[in-house]
Design a protein that fits this description.
single chain, about 200 residues, alpha+beta, four-stranded antiparallel β-sheet, 5 helices, 8 strands
Length: about 200
């Protein structure tokens, strides 16, 4: 009798866990191949309760999750990643590990000419202000690198701009915890990040 009770409880738990999994093939605008890719991405991550997916009408998507950041921060970052890849506004399709029934476009990315906390992409709001404050105070041959996952680093006081750019990229990738993920955001006082920037670099 006890064995049957345990078996029933385990089956109910498994069914409940499956019910909490998003339906990736209900995400709008995506092919079955893309939906299957998102499902594999979801199965790979640990932070399933904060998993988010943004999609665009032309079939691009981006995902992000984190166990220790505010959902608004993750939402902004995933929308920006999707919008940059798609070249058009994206909307949330999965939030906090659940399907969102009503897709709505939500523009969130600005290509600025100068470094400012309001327009720096992929970085949490409070951290963005810290980035800008430090970078603005830096002098002579400086560069700022970012990753699509919110990591950042800058270098200043180097002999050449090229050296500052390379050092900022290297430091950013150390902060991100994964090589070849960072891209150059600013060189000197000029933002070099634009619509054609590859945020998935392989250097």
């Amino acid at each position: 009798m006890l064995f049957r009770f345990v078996l029933v409880a385990l089956m109910a738990s498994a069914h409940s866990a499956r019910a909490d999994v998003p339906d990736f093939f209900q995400i709008p605008f995506l092919s079955d191949v893309a939906s299957a890719s998102i499902q594999r991405d979801y199965e790979r991550v640990r932070c399933k309760q904060t998993y988010m997916v943004a999609v665009s009408p032309n079939g691009h998507w981006a995902s992000r999750c984190s166990g220790n950041k505010l959902s608004s921060t993750i939402t902004r970052a995933v929308l920006q990643k999707c919008e940059h890849a798609a070249g058009q506004a994206c909307g949330m399709a999965i939030a906090k590990g659940q399907n969102i029934p009503d897709w709505q476009a939500s523009p969130s990315l600005v290509y600025a000419e100068t470094v400012s906390p309001e327009t720096i992409p992929f970085v949490a709001d409070l951290r963005g202000r810290d980035v800008v404050s430090r970078y603005s105070a830096a002098r002579r041959n400086k560069a700022l690198a970012l990753s699509r996952n919110g990591a950042w680093a800058y270098a200043s006081g180097r002999l050449t701009m090229r050296e500052a750019e390379q050092v900022s990229l290297n430091k950013c990738e150390e902060n991100d915890g994964n090589r070849r993920r960072c891209f150059l955001y600013a060189s000197g006082d000029d933002v070099v990040f634009g619509p054609d920037t590859n945020i998935f670099p392989e250097r």
